[in-house]
Design goal:
The protein is of the alpha/beta class and 288 residues long. Helices cover 40% and strands 17% of the residues. It has 13 helices and nine strands. It has an eight-stranded mixed β-barrel, surrounded by four helices. A hairpin with a 4-residue loop joins strand 1 and strand 2. Bound molecules: calcium ion (CA).
């Protein structure tokens, strides 16, 4: 069970590494950040018009994120899958430099459409590729349109992103986060504590949610260094008014330690596996 779940996050990291592989992310000349002035020249850089069409299909599985204090489902994370439930890796392997933008955009639209079609009443968490966003305001338009078309409220959408190994353009990532927050979305730093997603990003930008990486969660109940680190993250986030979410919980002992540490939002096989083209159902017993 552990190995299957472990596959989820590294795959996303793989996308980011992949997305970051192209160094020449275009941006308007002379602009080090996307301002209202940039947005005033909509549709911005026009890269979207040149984006290659996708020549493969994909869909989503949705994994519940639970809130312990209310014993309820807080949100669902949209996880990419092949049309017949194939792994995320098999889908991502088909994305190339020409289709990265189209893929990122299509992911948002399909995740929202799927969530609405399934009658999702909770929040929807969408992973995005910072290197597939050129100008936040221009590149968000199809997301707005999808939310409008399918009647999914903006304030129920969370954008989560990890700071991948090769995402070196920190100001760009922080700018996207800030703009998305301004547009009314919620934001989350993914894989916190793993690799490059870490403290210095948090010092520059405080999202709504920090997702503690599953590597720190695994066996946290039996691992003193992990306990110290998790307690530090919780304390830090409390001071910054950032919610903490722990992902990859597989055992009741992990749940209990994290609960007692003050973590209220959790995700993992212990609660529910990703549900293919469906909303996972959480057994109330997992809260006991
Ligand atoms: Ca994620």
């Amino acid at each position: 069970m552990g190995s299957a779940q472990t596959a989820v996050v590294p795959l996303h990291s793989q996308v980011l590494a992949f997305a970051a592989a192209v160094p020449d992310r275009p941006r308007q000349s002379g602009s080090s950040s996307t301002s209202d002035a940039d947005a005033g020249s909509m549709p911005g850089c026009g890269r979207c018009k040149n984006a290659a069409a996708l020549d493969f299909e994909f869909t989503f599985a949705y994994q519940p994120i639970v809130q312990l204090s209310t014993r309820s489902v807080y949100a669902h994370e949209a996880l990419v899958r092949g049309p017949n439930g194939e792994s995320a890796a098999s889908v991502l392997a088909q994305v190339n430099d020409d289709t990265r933008y189209s893929f990122d955009q299509a992911c948002r639209v399909q995740a929202i459409r799927g969530a609405a079609a399934l009658g999702m009443k909770e929040s929807l968490s969408i992973n995005f590729l910072p290197n597939a966003v050129y100008q936040p305001k221009a590149c968000i338009q199809s997301t707005f349109e999808a939310a409008r078309t399918y009647g999914f409220p903006i304030e129920r959408i969370i954008f989560e992103v990890t700071e991948g190994e090769q995402v070196q353009d920190r100001p760009h990532l922080v700018n996207i986060f800030r703009e998305y927050s301004r547009f009314g979305f919620r934001t989350a730093i993914d894989d916190f504590g793993a690799g490059y997603a870490g403290l210095s990003l948090l010092s520059e930008y405080q999202p709504d949610i920090v997702k503690i990486d599953m590597e720190l969660v695994r066996d946290v109940d039996r691992n003193l260094p992990k306990q110290a680190i998790v307690l530090g993250i919780v304390s830090m986030c409390r001071a910054l008014d950032v919610q903490v979410l722990a992902e990859g919980i597989e055992t009741i002992a992990e749940r209990n330690f994290l609960r007692d540490a003050g973590v209220d939002l959790m995700q993992g096989y212990f609660f529910c596996k990703p549900a293919f083209k469906a909303l996972g159902r959480v057994d109330p017993a997992v809260f006991d």
